[in-house]
Inverse folding.
């Protein structure tokens, strides 16, 4: 009897099982290998995405350092550009390496400022180039960003209080006009008159707890608060907030806004200037810019030329005290810029400014004292000027007109004062901080080329 067939059949079956097992093993190996490869690739892509994001964050951090330096320099900080290479007097360059990325990755940012001390009306440009070296390799990820900057206006709103604003009296009003309708500083300014009167007067409270107590005043324009409800804006039975034609006791909903914000930076007295123990009756020379330093103004003063006056009286003491027949007079074509941390009282004959443009008189309050600076403007004449004193209690009282813009900690208008906001000041930017007007990522070699040579030098 032949028994060979069952033996071969058994071996054949065992071979088939082994073959199937090998095929299954191969499939599993391929699947596992593909899974591991896919997982590794996914991890690599995730790491790359993470470091791409980090590179962009680093570039923007470098840009923020440049903006900070610009604004500290603008605020008078002599050390604003410390740590930067400004030896050529035109550009600023700096490398930042203090980035903690983890996993043995390293990051470097180079920041290039085209003009660190730009002339007026010249917007500076800043470029930041970030490089991240991936851990365990020589591979790098780069991001490059360019920003253009421009000055923001402190006077985008006519009357601004950091905290609260109060209107007292039955005849107080706010409206507006445009002194420079063609945006050309070389053309004559348009003076305020009923013929050019507009209902674009604007008032604002910058804090989330600010209140605007309109009372019986007429706000021909808009009112805004930093909080989330317009209940912080109150009017009396004869008060108005809205366009011309708004009825008494009415807050036009379209003229109210919340979430108002304003960048109210504290300024410092500028350095330099010729020191004077006291002031004579006249100051300055027609057609000539001059800078002077003196403790205070207590007698009548007539100003010629382009005068900057730094009053050195400290916070809490009187810097300007004019009453009775005393006052400040600007000659035709003259300008006067005053910096002071002291208290200010302009009454009596007040400020006589024959020029149509309000910015020909500027009062910059520089107090940082916990006891707020006190600024009082009173009298029966017209006052044309701008006041920026973010840590001051400002009181405007009298029967005259105030034309320009005012920023303070607390603002109070009383009597029969009429405030006329010059809308042209919304684009006026002296002393104001820089902000980013244009942001773009530079991706291609052609886009990066204008900065390549400069970045290679540091």
């Amino acid at each position: 009897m032949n028994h060979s067939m069952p033996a071969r059949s058994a071996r054949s079956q065992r071979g088939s099982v082994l073959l199937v097992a090998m095929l299954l093993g191969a499939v599993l190996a391929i699947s596992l290998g593909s899974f591991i490869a896919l997982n590794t690739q996914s991890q690599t892509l995730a790491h790359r995405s993470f470091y791409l994001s980090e590179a962009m964050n680093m570039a923007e951090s470098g840009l923020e350092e440049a903006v900070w330096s610009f604004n500290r320099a603008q605020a008078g900080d002599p050390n604003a550009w410390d740590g930067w290479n400004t030896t050529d007097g035109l550009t600023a360059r700096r490398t930042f390496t203090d980035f903690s990325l983890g996993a043995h990755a390293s990051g470097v940012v180079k920041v290039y400022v085209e003009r660190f001390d730009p002339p007026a009306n010249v917007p500076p440009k800043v470029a930041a180039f970030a490089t991240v070296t991936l851990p365990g390799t020589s591979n790098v990820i780069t991001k490059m960003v360019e920003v253009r900057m421009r000055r923001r206006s402190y006077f985008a709103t006519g009357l601004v209080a950091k905290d609260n604003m109060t209107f007292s009296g039955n005849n107080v009003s706010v409206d507006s006009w445009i002194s420079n309708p063609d945006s050309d500083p070389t053309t004559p300014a348009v003076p305020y008159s009923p013929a050019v009167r507009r209902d674009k007067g604007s008032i604002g409270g910058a804090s989330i707890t600010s209140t605007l107590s309109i009372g019986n005043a007429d706000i021909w324009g808009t009112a805004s608060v930093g909080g989330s409800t317009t209940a912080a804006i109150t009017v009396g039975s004869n008060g108005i907030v809205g366009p011309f034609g708004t009825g008494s006791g009415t807050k036009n909903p379209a003229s109210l806004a919340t979430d108002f914000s304003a960048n109210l930076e504290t300024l410092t007295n500028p350095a330099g200037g010729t020191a004077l123990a006291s002031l004579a009756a006249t100051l300055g020379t027609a057609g000539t810019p001059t800078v002077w330093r003196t403790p205070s103004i207590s007698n009548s003063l007539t100003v010629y030329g382009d005068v900057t006056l730094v009053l050195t009286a400290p916070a809490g003491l009187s810097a300007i005290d004019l009453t009775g027949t005393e006052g400040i007079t600007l000659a035709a074509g003259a300008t006067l810029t005053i910096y002071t941390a002291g208290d200010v009282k302009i009454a009596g004959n007040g400020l006589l400014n024959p020029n149509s443009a309000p910015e020909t008189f500027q009062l910059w309050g520089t107090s940082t004292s916990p006891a707020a600076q006190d600024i009082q403007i009173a009298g029966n004449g017209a006052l044309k000027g701008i006041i920026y004193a973010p840590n001051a209690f400002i009181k405007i009282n009298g029967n005259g007109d105030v034309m320009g813009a005012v920023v303070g900690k607390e603002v109070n208008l009383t009597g029969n004062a009429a405030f006329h906001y010059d809308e042209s000041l919304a684009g006026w930017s002296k002393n104001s901080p820089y902000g980013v007007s244009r942001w773009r990522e530079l991706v291609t070699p052609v886009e990066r080329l204008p900065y390549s040579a400069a970045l290679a030098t540091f």
Notes: The radius of gyration is 33 Å. The chain has two domains: 44-152+435-455, 159-432. Residues 159-432 form one domain.
